[in-house]
Amino acid sequence: MKTVKSAAPSTDNRWRIVDAAMRRLGFQPHALIETLHVTQETFGFLDEDALRYIAATLGVPLSQVYGVATFYRAFTLKPKGAHHTCVVCTGTACHLKGLPEILAALEAELGLSPGGSTPDGKAALMTARCLASCGLAPAAVFDGKMVGNLTSATALKRIRQWVEHES
Amino acid sequence: MNPGVRVKTFKIDGLDVAGREDQTVLDVATEHGIPIPTMCHLEGLTSVGACRLCLVEVVGRSRLLPACVTPVEEGMAVVTNSERLQNYRRMLLEMLFVEGNHICAVCVSNGHCELQGLAQTLGVTHVHFPYHYPDRPVDASHSRFVVDHDRCVMCTRCVRVCNEVEGAHTWDVMGNGANVRVVTDLNEAWGRSETCTGCGKCVHVCPTGALFEKGHSVAEMLKKRQFLPYLTAMRRRQ
Amino acid sequence: MNPEELLQKNVSHQLTAEAHGHDVRVCMGAGCMSLHSDQIKSALTAQVKQHGRDKSCHVKGVGCMGLCAAGPLVSVEPQGVLYKEVTEEDAGEIIDSLNKAPVARLICPTDTPFFQNQMKIVLENCGKIDPERIEEYVNADGYIALIKALTEMTPNDVITQVMRSGLRGRGGGGYPTGLKWTTVAKADGTQKYVICNGDEGDPGAFMDRGVMEGDPHRLIEAMAIAGYAVGADTGYIFVRGEYSMSVKRLRKAIMQAERQALLGKNIFNTPFSFQIEVRIGAGAFVSGEETALIACIEGRRGVPSPRPPYPAERGLWGCPTLINNVETLANIPSIIRNGADWFSNIGTRTGKGTVVFAMTGRVQNTGLIEVPMGTPLREVIFDIGGGVPDGGTFKAVQMGGPSGGCIPEQYLDMPIDFDSLLEIGAIMGSGGMLVIDDSASMVDMAKFFMEFCRIESCGKCVPCRVGTVQMHELLIRFSEGTATERDLVLLEELCDLVRHTSLCGLGQSAPNPVLSTLRYFRHEYMAQIRPDFGANGVDTHESRSTS
Fold it and tell me: Rounded to two decimals, what is the model's pTM?
């Protein structure tokens, strides 16, 4: 067990959540991925301060922390900008059942492409490898809510609602 | 030799050889002067089996095995240089050429480069795969060293020597797939690294001109590797 | 009182207290959830209250019922009525009809091949029990196998049963499970581990998710049995990061099992102790590979390492480690409970038991199904699956995802098992079964899977890191119709290289979708070659010297 504890990057109370995660696994180096998960959930992304703090607390080299944080898709080093997110499933069944057409429609109608956001920055489009809802392909998650049997029309409608509502 | 370690006899390319059970096929082949091309392997560092150049055939096995991590076995028959293997090795080498931006004519390591040397040995005169032309940076922020990612073949020798021998673990690998790259600390400028001791081990184990000392012009960078077997031997004595 | 009775007494007494007349089960599988079955459950619960039936009717959420295509699904027991495409508005009518005739317009017939031709072992409790209540699992004979193993069998007896059952790993390779267990049991070391691989990363596969969400206690029981057999006191369930519901259910199940002393120190007052931890993946397909998975649990980059040493000898933190996939482990409680002979009587000579498929794509009845090994594909796709909808024509079935291959019409009568599939260039793999009709381009399918492999390559070994990029770029040319004959030669060369020189299974199998489509649908590739480019035509990427 580590006895010398490094100081949290700030007095932000959310660091306690991160600390708790590290404590639960005895501040061992193998707690790295769990800790990054918790930090990402808590702060939305992993900034340099967070990576340094975690590296120091778990006794993992900085470059290794960076290597792990950039290897896995779950982690992001940049903050998310958009208010709304649509995550489309790019799994095999969705691909076969018309995802390419939906993506083309979003691009053509709203200028929205995977990894990007609408010109006003309100809605972002992301992709997931497979949401494992293949029975309802194509599927997407709109602000955390799963929608199956997606068509270009329903996708456009949902995203237009976000964009228009807040203008 | 440690007591209790057994000796295995087997064949490499038809030659009867003997090796300790803790040795690899590559170790024994090297001892007997049988050349097997390697890239990521370096005596004194942990082997990772990543470059696949040292793949050999073992009679009766369907899979090709990397000689650098394959332990010797009694009675095995190893083939190191079949036409099929030569062909694969040439293609693997071509892949290393196309994924980076290797321009020998302007490289500090021209004439002393392991990648170039392998191309000559294996007879790779042309590349028949399309080049990737990746956009990769050069970091010259360190006072004495430079890393030119265009010339990096991702052998990870620098990562291992820094971790295993120097003990600093300044280097590691970031990203995945075709986007992998070696990084110092949190992907910061090397010159600002808090953990780098400036020992230069990484520079000297690097097989290409990706890591080099400042002040060298084309073809002038000679890598000095003697420190590695020396340090290994000295540490074993302690 | 023997342990079984004790368990029944401690755990299931609450169920008898409930002794209700009706059980209304709402499917909470991923498919139905995406159609908001949780809201339907709330509506049903509210209706039960409104009808004053709190005492005689119990509404519960259950795991995947299988027929995702007809979701959201609701079933009413003991009548055995299944309702399809239920909406919140239907709740009142359903509750109202409990003592009368069922709601005719919602009835989903269950006398169809989809329900009649399946055989459920792995999924026996899915869609029936409430996965968040240990009582229901115990009531369905849960933990009986663990008690039997701990109190009546030696670890060696357990291994013998698994060996004799003929169970083979369901994660892809089909390695004999009993043999793996023996290796770990015999390996030197006082500390050993059991890992359940729930990193189901194959796009189009959701069998493991079905088990983890629908019957989590089954895995806990299986892991404890495995731990007892091989001499491990700690287990890890490694769950794909995207499966937050699985993580939640498994953690809850572990807590419940600990509370009932089914996990922890001296289980059933025997010397055997076992604990389980859930570890969450972080989004990397390759971390399903054994050695990469271990790296992941150790908090490192999930990059594969050369084998040997195999994890069975040197695995997690250098200790002997048993790694089994979810579906493999889910068979264990049934094997121990019913005996090896019962299991080995199911299936074919070389493939015992059942196999679970996630049937998707151009097929009527998409969903989760389980059939005995040896069932012909035609029966699976056309009887159980209901064939291709909307008048489409069957073209091929893709099995095993990015590591698998396409099977054309002429092999549909072949019985499914490990070896038969391998022979025709597909693999059992992870159980993804994608039906493709004649509207799809096989070149496009191959391109889709290669892009996946390119993105998911860990980047460690040269052939996979560079070769998947090269192959994907070539496939783009084919799908755009700008390929040359030389591109076809290059593509085949690359397939051969990547298959034989890559470090891990992901790389070695990455060319499979290309190879199998080239084997059976070569004409589709040929059709994409630019007609004006003959064998002697000008090529856009002629040879360059190595500077």
Answer: 0.90
